[in-house]
């Protein structure tokens, strides 16, 4: 039995390391680009769905208005999703500066309010390229021009761009930033390897006609989440090779880590819930392999208290995991100009193992709280 257990543990370790090598290869395939000085021709619509964002939405709007992009080619539509604070009033105060407020007013309750908000904004839009971000994000003045420059020169139908956390206030939030970089890297690496599967909706662009061509959110609208990854997978099925990841520092969008463990777990539960609708089953298999590898780590760590052999097996697994993840994360954190975060990997790995196993068990079996609503 020990021999079989060892074989399974080492087999899962080998699979995981191959997956990390796949990610390293994919990230490396995407070249860092520089802003292009081109006469822009694309009409852009910036889409933002907002619910109870009075604390930060004015900062986001100011950043969008400050973009170094031709004003006659820029449209801003912000949808108020039944806010109970001053969000709508704040948005309205920018009407004379070209910001359009759209309010949701459904009579019947929905499970996917954000997808509804985005769909309604796209109906109203006049742009060719939809650029979606969130109401609590910040961006530099060349954010839009970098995205559109990439779009116009690469002939793409969809662009995933980088997102990171900033203004961290604790070690917990810094560790989230490192882990989030791991996730952003996965999305970029899959695109780099020619298999677009994951992205982040806080920095996401796509052609309006392509959105309608794939049926918009039809077929994925019963889930509250998935306005980004599930849409990307629909487009990837129709347009393989026409989705890009913009590896450019000017294109980075900044947002905040969760302040409490409860908020963090609710967010990750929401993200995990999307996996049941993934069209690319190889991505599902990718996640299952990682989950099983973490299960084996926990199991060997526990058995190590009773038999030193299992503890040695655990040490081999954890050392290989650490070394390969350092190689994977160094280029990603360097891109975000925060290489020092890799030093937190020693602390993050044991916590992440437990967290990943728990989320794998909970993500597809429980409702979660999002924006003050209980959804699935």
Please give the count of helices: 12
How would you write the strand order of the largest sheet? Answer: 3-2-1-4-8-6-9
Estimated structural class: alpha/beta
* Mean pLDDT level: 90
Helix content percent band: 40-55%
Radius of gyration: 21 Å
How far apart lie the N and C ends?
41 Å
What percentage of amino acids are in beta strands? 5-15%
> Can you count the beta strands?
12
Shape: globular
Largest sheet data: 7 strands, mixed
> What is the ordering of alpha helices and beta strands?
HEHEHEHEEHEEHEHHEEHHHHEE
Low-confidence stretches: none
Characterize the structure shown.
This protein has helices spanning 2-29, 57-65, 87-92, 113-124, 143-154, 171-192, 208-213, 229-238, 261-273, 281-303, 308-335, 345-362; strands at 44-50, 74-80, 99-103, 129-134, 138-139, 158-160, 163-165, 204-207, 243-245, 253-255, 368-370, 373-375. The protein is α/β, with parallel strands linked by helices. The strands form 3 sheets. A 7-stranded mixed sheet has the order 3-2-1-4-8-6-9, with helices on both faces. Helix 2 links the parallel strand 1 and strand 2 (74-80). The longest helix is centred in the N-terminal third of the chain and has 28 residues, at 2-29. The chain is globular.
Tags for this entry?
single chain, 376 residues, alpha/beta, 7-stranded mixed beta sheet, 3-stranded mixed beta sheet, 12 strands, 13% strand, globular
Task: Describe the structure concisely.
The chain is an alpha/beta fold and 376 residues long. It has helices at residues 2-29, 57-65, 87-92, 113-124, 143-154, 171-192, 208-213, 229-238, 261-273, 281-303, 308-335, 345-362; strands at residues 44-50, 74-80, 99-103, 129-134, 138-139, 158-160, 163-165, 204-207, 243-245, 253-255, 368-370, 373-375. α1 (2-29) packs across α10 (281-303).
């Amino acid at each position: 039995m020990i021999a079989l257990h060892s074989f399974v543990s080492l087999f899962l370790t080998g699979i995981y390391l191959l997956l990390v090598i796949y990610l390293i290869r994919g990230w490396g395939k995407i070249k860092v680009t520089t802003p292009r000085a081109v006469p822009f021709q694309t009409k852009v619509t910036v889409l933002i769905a907002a619910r109870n964002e009075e604390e930060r939405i004015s900062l986001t709007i100011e950043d969008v208005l400050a973009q170094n992009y031709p004003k006659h080619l820029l449209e801003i539509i912000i949808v108020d999703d039944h806010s109970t604070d001053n969000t709508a009033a704040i948005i309205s105060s920018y009407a004379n500066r070209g910001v359009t407020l759209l309010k949701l007013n459904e009579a019947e309750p929905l499970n996917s309010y954000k997808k509804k908000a985005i769909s309604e904004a796209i109906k109203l839009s006049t742009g060719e390229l939809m650029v979606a971000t969130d109401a609590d994000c910040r961006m530099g003045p060349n954010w839009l021009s970098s995205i559109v420059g990439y779009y116009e020169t690469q002939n793409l139908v969809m662009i995933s761009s980088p997102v990171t956390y900033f203004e961290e206030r604790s070690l917990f939030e810094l560790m989230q930033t490192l882990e989030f970089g791991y996730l952003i890297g996965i999305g970029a690496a899959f695109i780099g390897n020619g298999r677009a599967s994951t992205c982040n909706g806080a920095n996401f662009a796509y052609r309006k006609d392509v959105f309608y061509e794939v049926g918009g959110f039809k077929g994925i609208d019963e889930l509250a989440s998935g306005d980004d990854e599930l849409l990307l997978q629909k487009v990837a099925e129709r347009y393989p090779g026409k989705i890009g990841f913009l590896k450019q520092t000017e294109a980075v969008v900044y947002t905040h880590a969760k302040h409490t463990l409860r908020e963090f777990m609710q967010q990750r539960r929401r993200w995990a819930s999307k996996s049941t609708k993934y069209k690319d089953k190889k991505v599902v298999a990718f996640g299952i392999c990682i989950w099983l590898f973490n299960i084996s780590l926990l199991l060997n760590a526990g058995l190590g208290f009773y038999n030193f052999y299992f503890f040695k097996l655990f040490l081999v697994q954890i050392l290989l995991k650490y070394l390969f993840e350092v190689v994977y994360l160094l280029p990603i954190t360097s891109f975000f100009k925060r290489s020092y975060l890799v030093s937190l990997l020693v602390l993050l790995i044991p916590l992440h193992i437990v967290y990943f196993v728990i989320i794998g068990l909970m993500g597809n079996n429980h409702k979660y709280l999002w924006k003050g609503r209980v959804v699935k």
